[in-house]
Amino acid sequence: MLPDWVQNIASVSSILGLGLTVWLLVEAKKIRNSFLRRARLPEVIKELSKANNKISKHLGNWSTEEREGIKQFTIAKELLESLQQKLPDIEKKKVTIYTQTLEIRRYFFLKSTISEATEDEAWKLYTGLSGIITSLNQLQKDSRWD
Amino acid sequence: MNTESKTEKLIILLTKETYDGNVEWNNEPVPSGLTQGTNDIFPLYLGTVYKDTYIGLFQRRYKHFHDEFEYSWSEEIGMCVLGDNEAILWEYKERSVTLVNLFEAAREQASGINSILDNLIN
Asked: By CB count within 10 A, which of A138, A139, B2, B38 is most buried?
């Protein structure tokens, strides 16, 4: 039978070990996300910029090109959602808020992407998407120093 | 709101005004404030007056030096505000998707490419 003080040290060490394991898991996840981000971010930014450029052109004739414009917003939403989990908290929050503006909810749980938008709404969505791309560009610059 | 955010807001506003036909862009000579003392090439310069302010958009090709002698050509799109005697009061050259979109909208309008294509296909 071990003395009490040895058992106490063992218990405290176990708790500390558990804490350390959790901390290491969180850090490992951050490093994994950082690597994934560095690999995927340039490609996603390029695709998002392409969609943004097409949206801008469709905005010039929104009354006749609404469907094509909405299609590009849908592409942008899919791209952002694929990136979402790999982003740091601040950017993740911005992307979540933006993608929610591109969703319509039915019966609280059924979600689908917007199927129509007035010209003014489309300009607001375009402004939002441009802001997100600017944030992602800044993140890409910062990632070089990770 | 910082200067960059305000600029992005202005760029989107100018894009909308360009599409609505409220802003007219013209192909103009490059102001000396941009060209003097550089070897840069400006394939296109577009200017307009918006709310009594002269705004210019330009495409610039410049030498990007890797070391003392080796270089490659790079390209950028920029926006500037002009003062008297073609002085560049302010210049915005950040890599910005909205600025590229504005430049393309302005170029399309200034070139009249839509009516040229309509004439050719009709």
From this structure: A139
